[in-house]
UniProtKB/TrEMBL annotation:
GO terms for biological process: nucleoside phosphate metabolic process; ribose phosphate metabolic process. The keyword Cell membrane does not apply. Its cofactor is Mg(2+); a divalent metal cation; Mn(2+). Keywords: Hydrolase. The gene is rppH. This is RNA pyrophosphohydrolase. SUPFAM superfamilies: Nudix. Accelerates the degradation of transcripts by removing pyrophosphate from the 5'-end of triphosphorylated RNA, leading to a more labile monophosphorylated state that can stimulate subsequent ribonuclease cleavage. It comes from the Bacteria. InterPro entries: Nudix_hydrolase, NUDIX_hydrolase-like_dom_sf, NUDIX_hydrolase_CS, NUDIX_hydrolase_dom, RppH. The keyword Hydrolase applies. GO terms for molecular function: bis(5'-adenosyl)-pentaphosphatase activity; guanosine-3',5'-bis(diphosphate) 3'-diphosphatase activity. Belongs to the Nudix hydrolase family. RppH subfamily.
Length: 168
């Protein structure tokens, strides 16, 4: 068994992608139970991913959007002032994230989607991260099945609430 305390945190970015109605995009993970089933099943999350060596977080978040949802048609409208950190559940330490991390420390961004729904292509890169996506109200994010990331999403729903306004 891997000792979590001896492992570092992986640097990561996360994207709250807002549409013109003030809703955010979430995707259902392909590697978790419930994938491929009815939309009310599965584990859902916002696009996120690791920061490459020498890459700025602002670059990483647009790259991750492109890799996970097939488009980077977005502009950054806000940045969370802090890095938010979570620990993996003990059963996942040493098994996910290459087995090299105890969790992730994340820089989160709010982005305004500048494309159309047809620009979102979950199959743009393989293997696909998500098998389904939908727009939801930010305030409802923590109540979705977001697994062990719930505390992060509670913070984001509070701290980015002002970004969730519809555009005129």
């Amino acid at each position: 068994m891997t000792d979590a305390a001896s492992l570092p945190y992986r640097r990561n970015v996360g994207a709250l992608l807002f549409n013109d109605r003030g809703q955010i995009l979430i995707g259902r993970r392909t590697d978790m139970p419930g994938a491929g089933g009815p939309l009310e099943e599965g584990v859902w999350q916002c696009p996120q991913g690791g920061i490459d060596e020498g890459e700025a977080p602002e670059q990483a978040v647009l790259r991750e959007l492109h890799e996970e949802i097939g488009t980077d048609r977005a502009e950054i409208i806000a940045t969370h002032p802090q890095w938010l950190t979570y620990d993996l559940p003990a059963a996942l330490v040493g098994k996910v994230l290459g087995g090299r991390y105890r969790g992730q420390t994340q820089k989160w961004f709010a982005l305004r989607f500048t494309g159309t729904d047809t620009d979102i292509r979950l199959d743009a890169h393989q293997p696909a991260e998500f098998d389904a996506w939908q727009w939801i109200d930010l305030a409802t994010l923590p109540q979705r099945n977001v697994g062990f990331k719930r505390d992060i999403y509670l913070t984001l729903a509070r701290d980015f609430a002002a970004c969730a306004q519809p555009r005129p």
